[in-house]
Design goal:
Elements lengths: L2 H15 L6 H8 L3 H5 L5 H17 L11 H17 L4 H6 L7 H16 L4 H24 L7 H6 L1 H12 L4 H13 L3
Helix pairs in contact: 1-2, 1-4, 4-5, 5-7, 5-8, 7-8, 8-11
Length: 196
C-alpha cells in the first residue's frame, strides 16, 4: 500500500467525519488493511496529518508560486491568503489540520510564508518587519477559518446577550448588514496588511 492511497483515504474520512474521524482504526477499516500497513508508511498520526494537510492544500490551493515580478505584494499576498482560506474551508476541520501541520513536513504550507517573506523583503522592508506581517496575516487566516468552521450558524442566545451585550450587538449588526464571511475575512486582512 502506497502513501498516496492512505492519504486519499484519510482525506475521504476528513470530508465525511471531520478531524475526529481520521483515526488509524477507521483508516484501516476503510482501506481493508491491518494497522501495520499504515504504520509502514506513517510512524504516527502527526506524520499522517502532515501528509493530509499537504495533500489538502495541493488539491484545493494548487502549487503556491513566488510573486510575479512587478506585482504589488499586498494584493498578491492577500489573494494567496484568500486562496488558503478557501482551501481550508473545503474540508471540515481543514483549518485545524493545516494550522497543526509542521511546515518542514508540509512543503505546500511552507511555501506560503517563504514566498510572502520574499515578496515583502523585495519591496524594501527589513526581514523582521516582513516576518511580522506575514506571520500575523497567516495566523489570522488560520484562526479566522477555525472560528468559521467551529461557529457555523452560531446565534447569540438571550442569556448570552444579557451577559455580553456588546458582542451580541456586533454579531447582530454583522448579520443585519449581511456581511459575508468573505467580507469579514477581507476586513481583518486589510487591518493587518493594507496600511503597511
Amino acid at each position: 500500500m502506497d502513501a498516496d492511497t492512505i492519504v486519499r483515504a484519510a482525506l475521504a474520512l476528513l470530508k465525511e467525519e471531520g478531524l475526529a474521524g481520521v483515526t488509524f482504526r477507521k483508516l484501516s477499516a476503510s482501506l481493508e488493511v491491518k494497522a501495520p500497513a499504515i504504520y509502514w508508511r506513517f510512524r504516527d498520526k502527526r506524520e499522517l496529518l502532515d501528509a493530509v494537510a499537504d495533500a489538502l492544500l495541493r488539491e484545493t490551493l494548487g502549487e503556491p508560486r513566488p510573486m510575479p515580478a512587478g506585482s504589488d505584494w499586498r494584493r498578491w499576498y492577500v489573494e494567496l491568503l484568500h486562496r488558503l482560506r478557501r482551501a481550508m474551508l473545503a474540508y471540515p476541520d481543514g483549518a485545524r489540520v493545516v494550522a497543526g501541520a509542521r511546515p518542514p513536513h508540509t512543503p505546500t504550507l511552507a511555501r506560503i510564508p517563504e514566498y510572502g517573506l520574499r515578496a515583502i523583503e523585495a519591496s524594501g522592508r527589513p526581514l523582521p518587519e516582513a516576518a511580522a506581517i506575514v506571520y500575523t496575516a497567516l495566523h489570522y487566516t488560520f484562526g479566522h477559518v477555525i472560528e468559521e468552521q467551529d461557529s457555523a450558524d452560531a446565534e447569540p442566545t438571550t442569556a448570552f446577550a444579557r451577559r455580553y451585550p456588546t458582542v451580541a450587538r456586533a454579531m447582530t449588526e454583522a448579520g443585519r448588514l449581511s456581511l459575508t464571511p468573505d467580507a469579514i475575512f477581507a476586513a481583518g486582512l486589510a487591518l493587518i496588511i493594507e496600511d503597511r
